Amino acid sequence: MTPPSGLTLKYIGLGLGTQNYSCATSDSSSMPVAIGALATLYDATALIAALPASSNAVTQTTCQADTHSNALSMLPRFGEHYFNASGVPSFDLFGAHDAQYPTGGLFLSARKTGVSPAPATACKGTDGAAAVPWLTLVDDGSSRTRGLKEVYRVETAGGSAPATCEGMEALVTRDYSAEYWFYG
Ligand SMILES: *[C@@H]1O[C@H](CO)[C@@H](O)[C@H](O)[C@H]1NC(C)=O
Ligand SMILES: *[C@@H]1O[C@H](CO)[C@@H](O)[C@H](O)[C@H]1NC(C)=O
Questions:
Q1: Considering the entire predicted model, what is its pTM?
Q2: Cα 98 to Cα 104: distance, rounded to the nearest angstrom
Q3: Containing H/E element for 56?
Q4: Whose C-alpha lies nearest to ligand 1, atom 8?
Q5: Rounded to an integer, what distance in angstroms lies between the CA atom of residue 130 and that of residue 162?
Q6: For ligand 1, mutation pick of 168, 173, 176 (most atoms within 8 Å of CB)
Q7: Residue 173 C-alpha to ligand 1 middle, in angstroms?
């Protein structure tokens, strides 16, 4: 993947978690509204860097991740992705290190700057949900950010909202997985 200009790849995280939506009512006149996500981030930097870029092995990695394969769950857990109480997408890489931050703990307080639909061949979630879009998020300038500038969410599997709220609870969660490429 081409790094954003002037930046270097710091880590590749494999995210496993849920995309969350809210439903005002449980009938088809109501549409799910995206309210955030929660995912555990595993350090897949060495694993993914070792795969040939030309193969679809990377995609298969996230497809397997969505079914929580044993091999992938053995990757070190090194961070968490969540939306803070103000709704800001946040990436807490508590297990990450950097020459500038040798004691560890990198953080990205982010804002979304780019969206493109996942490819038609993207994996569905275990619940049949289509793959969420690929995204670009950048540092929002918060003092909480530490050592990271940008992240790409790619190779997504599952996570999309149901078409309507028919038959849904007030909080709808959809399992998803994705690769998060962190640059700094
Ligand atoms: C998303 O759902 C998870 C349960 O999977 C929950 O723990 C988390 O607090 C929710 N986050 C948001 C922002 O809705
Ligand atoms: C959420 O993150 C933003 C940006 O980093 C920060 O300004 C805000 O205080 C945070 N909100 C909470 C409730 O922590």
A1: 0.91
A2: 7
A3: none
A4: 38
A5: 9
A6: 173
A7: 8
Give the whole-angstrom CA distance, residue 83 versus residue 181: 18
Cα gap 108→142, rounded to integer Å: 9
Chain centroid to CA 96: 16
Q: Where are the alpha helices (DSSP H) in 4-152?
A: 45-49, 57-66, 70-73
pLDDT tens-digit readout, 119-139: 998 988 888 899 999 999 999
- Which of 19, 21, 22, 38 to probe ligand 1 with, by most ligand atoms within 8 A of CB? 38
Is the distance from CB of 160 to CB of 20 less than 8 angstroms? no
Give the Cα separation of 44 and 39 in Å (integer). Answer: 14
Across 6-15, 48-57, 118-127, the highest mean pLDDT is recorded for 6-15
CA gap 17, 120 in Å, rounded: 21
Residue nearest to ligand 2 atom 2, measured at CA? 88
Q: Cα–Cα distance between 123 and 159 in angstroms, integer? A: 10
* Ligand 2 atom nearest residue 143's Cα: 5
